[in-house]
Design brief:
Layout: H1 2-12, E1 22-28, E2 33-39, H2 43-55, H3 71-79, E3 99-108, H4 115-129, E4 136-142, E5 165-175, H5 186-198, H6 219-226, H7 228-242
Antiparallel strand pairs: 1-2, 1-4, 3-5, 4-5
Helix pairs in contact: 1-4, 4-5
Length: 256
């Protein structure tokens, strides 16, 4: 699996096949893995140029599906995890909840993931994830690469500092919404997924993504990992102006 992901990483950095029109991610859960995404171009170009390079040199996939769809259908496909079911839009009685612990990891484009880090990661999954006591999954999304529209902006554009990232990992362990107390084994297992990478690549500064809030961080850790000093100082100045009494608050909030 290490060599497969290294190939996909090289693919993601290859400007002859990757530009602003493509986005993809990897999903794995200890039992299988898949790669999926969207290409805003012709299906002929994808099938003749992009797909062959994406799959070059790796084991033949068990299943392949490429469809040409319109914009709304593509959004529905992404939102439903590929099931192509109609999205529910309840006006009242919304009761969809998850009982989970999540952790994220942002890797910089200037220092791509190493073979040692990926081997450590997949070895951890083999040793601990295949028989994990609770269900889990990891999503590894491409944020960088040639033509990345995330990385073309800077910190003045929005309160998001990660404008030089390559991959964003979401590690997610969950249980039934009715389970109480929350199973104690989930948090250390999910934390171990991130640690398997960072401990094997100590020379790289990894950060985190606010979209996958990690409640185990202190306020100071969250501010540093989610925002960085420059963005956080701007947000704190705004907080002091518009919410000096800290009415809007949580344990990792600006100003906490």
């Amino acid at each position: 699996m290490t060599n497969t992901f290294l190939h996909w990483q090289n693919f993601a950095l290859n400007s002859s096949v990757v530009d602003q029109d493509i986005g993809f991610g990897v999903h794995l859960d200890g039992n299988d893995f898949s790669i999926s995404g969207v290409y805003f171009g012709s299906i002929d170009t994808f099938n003749s140029m992009i797909a062959p390079e994406l799959l070059r040199g790796i084991l033949a996939p068990n299943f392949q599906q490429v469809e040409q769809v319109d914009w709304i259908t593509a959004l529905e496909y992404q939102a439903t995890g590929g099931s192509m079911t109609t999205l529910s839009q309840p006006l009242t009685g919304y009761d969809l909840h998850d009982n989970f612990f999540a952790k994220s990891l942002v890797s910089p484009e200037s220092e791509p993931l190493t073979s040692a880090a990926l081997t450590s990661y997949f070895n951890y999954i083999i040793a601990e994830g295949v028989g994990a006591p609770n269900p889990w999954f990891s999503i590894i999304n491409l944020y960088g690469g040639p033509g990345s529209q995330i990385n073309t902006k800077d910190e003045s554009f929005a309160a998001y500092p990660e404008r030089s990232s390559l991959w964003v990992f979401q590690h997610y362990g969950f249980t039934s919404s009715a389970t109480f107390p929350f199973p104690p084994a989930i948090e250390p297992f999910v934390t171990g997924l991130s640690d398997a990478i960072t401990n094997a690549q100590p020379e790289t500064t990894f950060t985190a993504y606010l979209g996958y809030v990690d409640p185990s961080y202190t306020a100071a850790q969250a501010h540093a990992l989610y925002y960085g000093d420059a963005v956080y100082s701007k947000l704190l100045a705004l907080k002091d102006i518009w919410d000096p009494e800290r009415l809007f608050w949580n344990p990792q909030a600006i100003g906490a």
